[in-house]
Amino acid sequence: MLKIKKFPNTFTILFLLIAFFASLTYLLPAGKYNREMNEQLGREVPLPGSYHVIESSPQGFFDTLMAPISGFYDPISGVIGAIDVSLFILMVGGFLGIVTQTGAIDTGIARIMVRLKGREIYMIPILMTLFALGGTSYGMAEESLAFYGLLIPIFMTARFDPLVAVAVIFVGTGIGTLGSTINPFGTVIASNAASVDFLSGVELRFAILTIALVVGIGYVMRYAKKIQNNPDLSLLAHLRDDNEKHFLGGKDSTDSLPLLTGPQKGVLVLFILTFSIMIYGVSCLGWWMAEMATLFIFMGILCGIVGRLSEDDLINSFVAGAADLIGVALIVGVARGIVVVMEAGNITDTILNYAEGLVAGKSSVLFINTVYGLEMLLSFIVPSTSGLAVMSMPILAPLSDFANTGRELVVTAFMSGIGTVLFVTPTYGVLMGGLAIARIPYVTWLKFIAPLVAFFVVLNCIILSIGASLYS
After folding, report:
1. Which residues form a coiled coil (predicted)?
2. What global pTM score does this model have?
């Protein structure tokens, strides 16, 4: 029997892609488009039909090795590449590390569950909304793993099964990713790579977020009520005895839950205020990566002081939080190395020229739905939101100029595409980790989530098609 090997790591995939595109600089003709300033878009755009072949500049072995470094900054000219984005990611990580250290978010959610004891069915819409807000605002993903051990026993005590707890957490955060409004690791990075303001097109992403959340809550509540009335209808009915022994063990799951202190309440207020200030700064003050990174440093320190962390705890939690995202920060630079190789080899416009032929004469509705499908396909290969954003946006965003479609809509298609796939892809560590904690077979999860994912696909296609009419 053929043994299935482990899927390659995201870094491995990106390094292989750098080597692949470096080899293409020997195979494809180098070329350029003539460009002109588009006053409406506020940037130069390629002129359709102006592509012309230029002298080739194939990328050699050392150029290929240098590409990931050049992805952060150009060592010759000193021009900034992805280094500002990577530093921004590290500052956000430090901020989240401090907030987590105060225990404000964990304790806040725990107290909500205590208040709703005996009315646990109402925990589903409340918690899914909170998790969705975490997903859409700061890309909550790995942080959610801490809630599985807390929520599963509480939901099982209320005569639900572990699948309900996983759905509340993972579907909640997943819907937030699907409709990312200001997610710094998804929408912000993709918009930066597409050369558009990340608040452009936020209306469509908010519409996806709202509709998907309402339907998702209804879907999970329907299943929860069904198994609460008849436990034998649970998809995990055959594991009920084992799960009760494993997760409950005769203990009251609400014992020893801490109270939400005054300082923790203050941290929660500052947490919300931070993202509000970020939105205002970007939309009204012209802020970008440096200013936003500064905001997160300052608000992180302020949260630590209000949360009464000691000097060592504040600094250590900031460093630990930044360390948790060092992989994401590196992925952004390495992924941009692909763009560096393509641009240095002058094949970016050549690929655009081939793609121009594919979209020429096609409607913007067909184009944007094709982008959505393509991003879903790529998400199976590169399940990193930030990595795929930096890799795909430099090609797909300029391509939208030929299709008379706004680049902000391409960003929305990107987030919708990867957001859809993350519900089911086995290469996504957060999904597989959550299922492992809850002892849910992957096939069982697919059986549960498939109808909801199918709805999300239809919803995204409809919203993107409407957007194509509005932004074209």
Report:
1. none
2. 0.71
